[in-house]
């Protein structure tokens, strides 16, 4: 599918051996094709119409890194106390099974923290499939229905087959599946419903922006019982038993890595000789004192503290200005708005000296995560080298809590690297 053309380029070639720079896209991509037309004959008599010295493709690995099964080995409760010992089989990734003789049944998975759900996969046991089911989500309050069997993108056929149900945006820390209209197993066990696995997938709402997030994500992705089983070999006679023995140590290993990451970062943050921002992979974070705002200066540092604190203003027009303290190439901005107080119109400007600013982007260039409250906006970068970034806000929305705030931002992240993009590793 076509994604970009010369009309989208943010930089066009001028002179010999010049560069074109084309912004990216969200469509997952494993192969890239560039079609060329209307070339120009080289001046050296070689008869060449097109010539390319380099084609650098920048991006992030998303499919495996950002999508995670978050239900593995999480606490499970189910409706039938007779088979309570089998409840954990639903999420043990070991092809064991949970079943029940009840005509109506349910099970709940405690994800232990809220997630946006990408999809849910259910592998049924035998032919004991629920002809009618619904998935409900809770984030600490009442359960609300999110999906039913009519939403499934894949339905079971035959023995031990799968249902695949698309996810939802509602933050979810507990998932409940209600089952009705089952099918009696053919082995005379009297089971109406049976499940071998229920996999709940989440995506990172936002790509990791610093070393801590990347390392934690890598730990979760790589240290899993499923990975270990693969390395052991699926044909090994004792693979299932060996994997069960490894589940506990693996969970401890992941927790230990997370603890050490946090501990190391805390130590580094206290050293004047090694500021914490030096650990950043792609984020260009300003240090406290290097951000200015049109009003609400006492809250300005909340914009860059990496937390869900907030900066806000009751002014109808506002601006934010960041001194990056170095010359940087900018990959993009990530804005986490506060509540509903989002600017309908804004401009992003850059400067290489802190005096003269040039408009680079506006609201029409941004993509949003679609959330109605506390949404994120992603704004693509630009090619001009930058020492200062300024964002001018207009036409805000008054908060609904009577605080009279027209604009509010929780995080203002400037993504990029020190130096020219031509010297990045593709």
Structure description:
The radius of gyration is 26 Å and the shape is globular. The chain has four domains: 1-57, no CATH class; 67-205, Sandwich (Jelly Rolls), CATH 2.60.120.260; 208-281; 291-423, Galactose-binding domain-like (Jelly Rolls), CATH 2.60.120. It has three helices and 16 strands. It is 12% helix and 34% strand. β5 and β6 (144-148) form a beta hairpin. It starts with 66 loop residues before the first strand and ends in an 8-residue tail after the last strand.
List the main descriptive attributes of the protein structure presented here.
426 residues, mainly beta, Jelly Rolls, 4 domains, eight-stranded antiparallel beta sheet, 34% strand, globular
Give a brief rundown of this model.
With 426 residues, the chain is mainly β. It contains three helices and 16 strands. The protein has four domains: 1-57, no CATH class; 67-205, Sandwich (Jelly Rolls), CATH 2.60.120.260; 208-281; 291-423, Galactose-binding domain-like (Jelly Rolls, Sandwich).
């Amino acid at each position: 599918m076509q994604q970009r053309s010369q009309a989208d380029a943010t930089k066009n070639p001028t002179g010999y051996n010049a560069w074109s720079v084309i912004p990216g896209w969200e469509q997952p991509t494993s192969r890239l094709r560039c079609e060329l037309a209307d070339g120009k004959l080289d001046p050296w008599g070689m008869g060449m119409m097109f010539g390319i010295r380099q084609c650098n493709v920048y991006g992030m690995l998303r499919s495996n890194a950002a999508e995670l099964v978050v239900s593995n080995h999480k606490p499970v409760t189910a409706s039938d106390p007779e088979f309570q010992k089998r409840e954990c089989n639903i999420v043990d990734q070991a092809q064991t099974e949970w079943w029940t003789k009840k005509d109506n049944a349910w099970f709940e998975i405690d994800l232990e923290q809220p997630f946006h759900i990408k999809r849910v996969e259910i592998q049924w046991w035998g032919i004991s499939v629920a002809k009618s089911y619904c998935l409900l989500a809770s984030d600490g309050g009442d359960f609300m229905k999110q999906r039913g069997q009519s939403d499934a993108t894949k339905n079971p056929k035959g023995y031990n087959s799968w249902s695949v149900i698309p996810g939802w945006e509602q933050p979810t820390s507990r998932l409940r599946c209600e089952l009705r209209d089952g099918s009696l197993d053919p082995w005379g066990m009297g089971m109406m419903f049976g499940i071998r696995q229920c996999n709940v997938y989440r995506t990172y709402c936002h790509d990791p922006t610093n070393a801590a997030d990347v390392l934690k994500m890598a730990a979760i992705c790589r240290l899993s019982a499923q990975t270990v089983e693969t390395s052991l070999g699926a044909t090994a006679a004792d693979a299932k038993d060996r994997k069960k023995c490894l589940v506990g140590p693996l969970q401890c290993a992941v927790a230990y890595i997370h603890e050490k990451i946090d501990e190391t970062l805390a130590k580094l943050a206290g050293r004047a000789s090694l500021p914490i921002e030096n650990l950043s992979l792609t984020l260009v974070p300003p240090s406290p004192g290097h951000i200015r705002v049109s009003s609400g200066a006492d809250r300005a540092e909340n914009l860059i503290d990496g937390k869900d604190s907030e900066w806000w203003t009751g002014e109808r027009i506002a601006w934010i200005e960041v001194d990056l303290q170095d010359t940087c190439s900018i990959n993009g901005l990530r804005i986490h708005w506060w509540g509903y107080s989002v600017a309908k119109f804004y401009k992003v400007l850059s400067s290489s000296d802190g005096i003269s600013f040039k408009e680079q982007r506006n609201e029409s260039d941004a993509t949003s995560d679609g959330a109605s409250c506390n949404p994120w906006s992603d704004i693509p970068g630009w090619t001009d080298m930058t020492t200062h970034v300024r964002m001018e806000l207009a036409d805000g929305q008054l908060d609904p809590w009577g605080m009279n705030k027209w604009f509010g931002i929780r995080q203002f992240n400037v993504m990029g690297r020190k130096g020219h993009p031509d010297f990045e590793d593709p």
